[in-house]
Amino acid sequence: MPGVKSCDFDGEVRSLILPGAGAIKERILLHDNSARRIEYSCFESPGALTSHHAKMEILDDGQHSLLAWEAIIEPIELEAFVKESMEGALSQLEGVLAKNRL
């Protein structure tokens, strides 16, 4: 994530400090390496977030890979903030992958 100041993971809970969002905690609900899928839910944040469930999955057709990332949040008024954060993370991921291409 862009600008993550810190991230700790205890095997179940990921604790992050994010610029603009502050300290948040996410519970990892599913982590399946063989299916290349993770689901998580934010259960603690300083803002007005009341519900959050996100999933990421890498889809592969044999020639190309696609990262599918979706989040369901409440209240809907936070959608723009969450979307901007997700887009920033994707942009950083693209940069990392571009550096590592052979």
Can you lay out the helices and strands and say which pair or pack?
Elements: E1 6-9, E2 13-18, E3 22-32, E4 37-44, E5 51-60, E6 65-74, H1 79-99
Antiparallel strand pairs: 1-2, 2-3, 3-4, 4-5, 5-6
Q: How would you sum up this structure in a few lines?
A:
The protein is α+β, with helices and mostly antiparallel strands. It has one helix spanning about 80-100, and strands at about 5-10, 15-20, 20-30, 35-45, 50-60, 65-75.
Describe this structure in words.
With 102 residues, this protein is of the alpha+beta class. It has one domain (6-99): Alpha-D-Glucose-1,6-Bisphosphate, Chain A, domain 4 (2-Layer Sandwich). The chain contains one helix and six strands. It has one helix at 79-99; strands spanning 6-9, 13-18, 22-32, 37-44, 51-60, 65-74. Strands 1-2-3-4-5-6 form a six-stranded antiparallel β-sheet, with helices on one face. Strand 3 and strand 4 form a beta hairpin. It is globular and about 40 Å long. The relative contact order is 0.15. The mean pLDDT is 89.
